[in-house]
Amino acid sequence: MNKRFIIKNILNLSKILDKNSSQLMKLSPQVLTIQQKRCFRLENEKFTLTVEEQIQEQKKRNEEVQDMTELIRDFLDPAEFFKSVQSISEIDFFCGVPDSLLKDFCAYISTHVKSEKHVITSNEGAAIAMAAGYHLATGKNPMVYLQNSGLGNIVNPVMSLAVPAVYSIPMLLLIGWRGEPGKRDEPQHRVQGQSTPGILAALGIPFQTLPDYQEGAEQALLTAKQYMKNAKGPYCLLVRRQTFLPFKFQKSPPKYKFNREDALKLIIDELSERDIVVGTTGMLSRELFEYREIKKQGHEKDFLTVGSMGHSSAIALGIAMKKGKREVFCLDGDGSVLMHMGTMATIGQSGTENFKHIIFNNGAHDSVGGQPTDADNESFSFAKIALGCGYKDAFTVYSEEEIKNGIKRVKSSKGPILMEVKCNPGHRKNLGRPTRKPIENKSDFMHFLAIN
Question: Is residue 303 classed as helix, strand or coil in its secondary structure?
Fold first, then answer.
């Protein structure tokens, strides 16, 4: 490692320690640990560089090495990239499912593009189909954005609709590359990230990584435009982490007195020792894991659906059908349910009496930037949909008192039954991730299920 680099980082460390010395003096040496993310973790507080601070730090480094362009780290301005997409690619229609690596660009689109030209779809396959419809109606090329975990959802509409050998529909795919090889990420994303280039190649979709500087991005858009013009098929730009400069999505003011985590705690407190829990993808499973830690209850009662967005209810139904003497609670989210809402029809028609469905509806894709879902609209009701699908009972709660009474109603009633919990979007900034591996979760959970 370069000696100058080591000395510089020691000096930076000294400055931070001096700045926070009054707080650090109160702590024992064992309490303070230095994290790999240039982060100081304290017992009650956490000092960490924000994304904005990291960017400012990088800009200073760029100035120091401006004579060595190969060492300069760039970021794309969402506004400038958007203008280039419009001017170079001649694209003015956008649809897809938000992703954390694309959240700044998606936030810019949500803020500046009218609803008739931007649609957040229920799943990625629907986005491909909608983009195809737009092209058929206008002859123009659309953009579809998604996380690479959504590649599985687009396989059918791409292969049987969009590829040049079938209907030959050009579209630009902007895909967040979670789990990119060599980058830190969760197990499910590392598997997906390793497979992403191979999946795109198998689909016959040419791709390149999106450069993180404007001139390179414009050249990539020109290449994509030329391919879509000649081959008349989909072209993909893979987006690495921290490609875009931050752009804050303007969120609506809170409607309720509690958020998902508050509601989750009220519900968990009412469950018995034998109850089985399946937690959905995203922040909910992380909050569930931390609350079990606080209560020192262990994690064997919970199956955490770390990936497979939209499928937690099907997992829970499969368990409920084979564990008829135990109550099975599916703790779901609005974005997850919307992604594969057809499962509600299967649940309703199954008549599984021990299936208890609880949907935390905060009207947002909370774990990838907070963009709204269709469930945020006043005219939308999961409870009415559930009743139409054949659930024996379904209702919506809006307050803490209603949640407490509602969970008692759920527990005392035969299923399938659904409780929709209306809550505010958002989560704690210091929310951790499960410290147990998925395979460990599986082993403990299966052991818990085996207990009569």
Answer: strand
331: three-class secondary structure by DSSP: strand
Tell me the whole-structure pTM to 2 decimals.
Answer: 0.83
Q: For the chain, what's the residue count?
A: 452
SS3 content of the chain, % helix, strand, coil (to 5): 50, 15, 35
Residues 391 and 215: their CA atoms lie apart, in Å, by: 55
List phi, psi (to 5°) of 262. Answer: -60, -45
CA distance 292 to 301: 10
DSSP 231: T
Q: To 10 degrees, the CA torsion angle through 254, 101, 288, 261?
A: -10
Encoded amino acid at 169, one letter = I
First to last CA, the chain: 57
pLDDT mean by block of 10 residues, the chain; 452 residues: 48 49 41 35 45 66 61 83 96 95 94 95 97 98 96 96 97 96 87 93 96 96 97 97 88 88 95 95 92 91 92 98 96 96 97 97 85 91 98 97 96 97 90 90 95 78
